[in-house]
What does this fold into?
Amino acid sequence: MTMKKISAELIKAAQGEFPIDLLLKNAQVINVFSGEIYRENVAIWDKFIVGFGDYEAKKTIDLDGLFLAPGFIDGHVHTESSMVEIPQFARAVVPRGTTSVVCDPHEIANVMGYDGIRYILESSKYNPLNVFIMLPSCVPSTPFETSGSELRAFDLYPFFSEKWVLGLAEVMNYPGLLKCDPELMDKLKISHSKRIDGHAPGLLGKGLSAYVAAGVASDHECTDVEEARAKLRQGLHIMLREGTAAKNLRDLLPLITCENSHRCFFVTDDRHPSDLIEEGHMDHAIRTAIAEGLSPVTAIQMATLNPARYFMLNNHGAIAPGYFADLVAFESLEQIKVRKVFKNGEHVADNGKPCWDPPELRAAQLGQHQVAGGGGVQDQGQGQGRQDPGDRAAGGPAADQGARGGAQGGGRPGGVGPRARPAQALRDRAAPGLGQDGLRLRQGLRPARGRAGRLRGPRRAQRHRRRHQRRGHDGRGDPDQQAGGGGWWWPRAAR
It folds into this structure.
């Protein structure tokens, strides 16, 4: 189905020319654009909000005065801190109202390198939770630690072709940035058109100016109002953190005013299982901010519209025609007791309980990874791609993501090695005979050094493919899943 045809059907649905899929009646809509709360019906067709008022609908749900807000967005989280895989993490946070997270897989990348990032991407499929990725900027964190991998700009570059990848995660090595470390400068160069998150505790003055001038756009390490105000004045977005290891939300709330709240949003950074179960996720951050005196509408804006705007997530973070129907219905503006959660127009959680079963993390989804512990798989071919934000209107998984999954997820037989590997996709982009160093120079990077960025030769790649074909794997994933089947109840929203 073409985008033109989809747009025409969306317009017809908005005008009520045929029955819509779902009508949410008697909701107290929280409008994050106007700052108002008013009673209204919300019409949903396919995965989109199409209008307000009375519509003929295939299904109607009476919210009976529940507040209706956009799905909550966690703007910075290391999901590894939850100590569970993404499908189980989703079952913990989606019933709490979180429908999107921006993940920095720094911790798993420190151990598994390229394969760790690929594993997070693949295991995020087929869940009613958007998992966007910011690529780790410092693997290893320091030159003094022992890590399982070293990721350079050359290794990260192929991931930027993934539409779920939003940019470069927290630049912790700010001393290296200020000294113009060549490796870090390469990473900043390849991220120039994306978001670059910051991590610079205590950095002020000229050093902060240089940090911002390099393209860093946010910081989540502020511990007091004066530091946050200085960084806000320099143009940084301020992330107010309420996690497990660090809690700065209460300390930074006095910074928030009507004039600057649009430059601030909530994050968790890390959240342990006990805190997720006992306190919550983004709902806990909103509850805490309201208890400290912040306006409920402003608090909800800082968990929805503000992070969506910062990460340039079009059609997310608001209740308006053309936006994805990621919605949270809850009681009480003070307690934020979540009653119902809708993802892409589907009812996915009710009274704190998930309404779906987690997808099976099969080998075809995870690609050629040997993962220790639960969910481990053997060298089993490639996973199909999940649907991306630009392709959701097509009603199925994106074919180009599937091709990239097959090209990029390669691994050595028998398990994951200690170092990162570049992707097949990068080789495919090279002109014949260009060579590794020539390709780097064409990208504006320095020639590669050491083994981490070494390209495999075409003959070795052919032998690798033939070996998997003999084992019965063609490297293109599960055909049932590619067709949107496989028994998953939500095939059009291949998350």
